[in-house]
Amino acid sequence: MDFVAGCIGGAAGVLVGHPFDTVKVRLQVQSVDKPLYRGTYHCFQSIIRQETVFGLYKGIGSPMMGLTFINAIVFGVQGNTMRFLGQDTPMNQFLAGAAAGAIQCVICCPMELAKTRMQMQGTGEKKSSRKLYKNSLDCLARIYNREGLRGVNRGMVTTLIRETPGFGVYFLAYDVMTRSLGCEPDDRYMIPKLLFAGGMAGIASWLSTYPVDVIKSRLQADGVGGVNQYSGIADCVRQSIRREGYMVFTRGLTSTLLRAFPVNATTFATVTLILMYARGVEEGPKDCEQAQPSHHTQIKQQAQPSSL
């Protein structure tokens, strides 16, 4: 039931957060010489005006499809790692989260590649005159036919660098927050506390690895127009800093942080309500009161979106 709840909660989080993710990607990869958007609000406004509201949901199929596999991997790895480590300590929460984050990159990287390519397709067009990709699966199939496995796993190293510490920070922050806030069996604010802890942990996680995410997005979007601009990670970092300065690593950060809290809040609310309904209202608060790693882990694993 925990797995089902996590999947449904994650799906709810994707629906709420995907428009913010689209804005983030557009801002991260837009040309510095001919920028289409002046900022987060202008990007939202332009996409809706030029591509309708559905433009904000471009590429949503990929995270929806990858959600089940990612949740399964994260849920299994984090739980088994915590059992292997034995003690529920903040450091062990970080290590277990980092292990889960590293292993789920196998699914996360191709999924985000397809998502990024779909989000960039038809930029500024209400109805794309020539669609390169029909959907996320077609996108991955075309990339594989053209570039092989290496093409499908473009951005794997940067994804690994982002996800490993990112998941670790998330689980660590959530563990510290839930312990600090406390949770009594008859606490009427139990769910708001969990939502607040999850939202703040998501923000902390993004802040810790955001510069890497900028480079990952640029590498995965590179070649969309048929021309590859970067030869690798170091070249992407070098060119980005030379042309745009160090502030390039904050591009799209506003929309990311705006997305982080509601995504985690939505995911936590959905997971918590489903688990409480399935187990009975009495069992839910008991789990929270004891603050056992199994309860925190089950919720935390579902709350982290593929892009945190």
Automatic annotation (TrEMBL):
The keyword Repeat applies. Pfam families: Mito_carr. It is a multi-pass membrane protein. Residues 285-308 are annotated as: Disordered. The keyword Transmembrane helix applies. Solcar repeats lie at residues 1-84, 88-180, 192-277. InterPro entries: MCP, MCP_dom_sf, MCP_transmembrane, Mitochondrial_Carrier. Keywords: Amino-acid transport, Membrane, Mitochondrion, Mitochondrion inner membrane, Repeat, Transmembrane, Transmembrane helix, Transport. It is found in: Mitochondrion inner membrane. One of its GO terms (biological process) is mitochondrial L-ornithine transmembrane transport. It comes from the Eukaryota. PROSITE patterns: SOLCAR. It catalyses: L-homoarginine(in) + L-arginine(out) = L-homoarginine(out) + L-arginine(in); L-histidine(out) + L-arginine(in) = L-histidine(in) + L-arginine(out); L-arginine(in) = L-arginine(out); L-lysine(out) + L-arginine(in) = L-lysine(in) + L-arginine(out). Its main location: mitochondrion. Residues 291-308 have a biased composition (Polar residues). One of its GO terms (molecular function) is high-affinity L-arginine transmembrane transporter activity. PANTHER family: MITOCHONDRIAL BASIC AMINO ACIDS TRANSPORTER, MITOCHONDRIAL BASIC AMINO ACIDS TRANSPORTER-RELATED. Belongs to the mitochondrial carrier (TC 2.A.29) family. This is Mitochondrial basic amino acids transporter. It comes from Perca flavescens (American yellow perch).
